[in-house]
Amino acid sequence: MKRIIFALFFVVAFTGASAAEVGGVKLDDKLRLTPTGPELVLNGAGIRTRVFFKVYVGALYLAEKKAAANDVLALAGPKRVAMSMLRDLTAQQLSEALVEGINNNANAAEQTALKARIDELVAIMNALGEAKKGDAILLDFLPGSGTRVVVNGQPRGKPITGEDFYRALLKIWLGDKPVDDDLKKGMLGRAD
Questions:
Q1: What range does the domain containing 154 cover?
Q2: Please, is 54 exposed, middle or buried when counting C-beta atoms within 10 Å of its C-beta (0-12, 13-18, 19+)?
């Protein structure tokens, strides 16, 4: 009888730990970007703050956990950055923040090479009109297709080509000049 109780306790405890929660946002521990794609695991997550405002929960999903930014940037294959909005932003605020994050972590030659694709991302974000509290914005990298933007479960625009573009996006959070140091630590699974 004790074994059965212990086994039930173990199952309940294990099942209850199947999803992480950050800033009141529940995050899947594992997911797939496509029905037949490989399984990705939650690498880490944190809260993007600006001044003292909580802006969004950022989560990073990879094929395997990585604790160093350079290892994430070198990792091939599908990836996801999920942003769960904690406050309302205009499309312009969101676009400007993304562009600033890319430019802060790219040299002049990289910015020139990425310009047309950054413009595509800005057009997709501006078409949203706004990002409201509770919205889920997903930036997925699908090898062979590119960067897919999904908002509240709906794909937006067409995929933006190039793994170099997705790497530039990742540097917004994981580069030498990340948008938020604590969020970088969280996405790398090193939150204090």
A1: 28-187
A2: middle
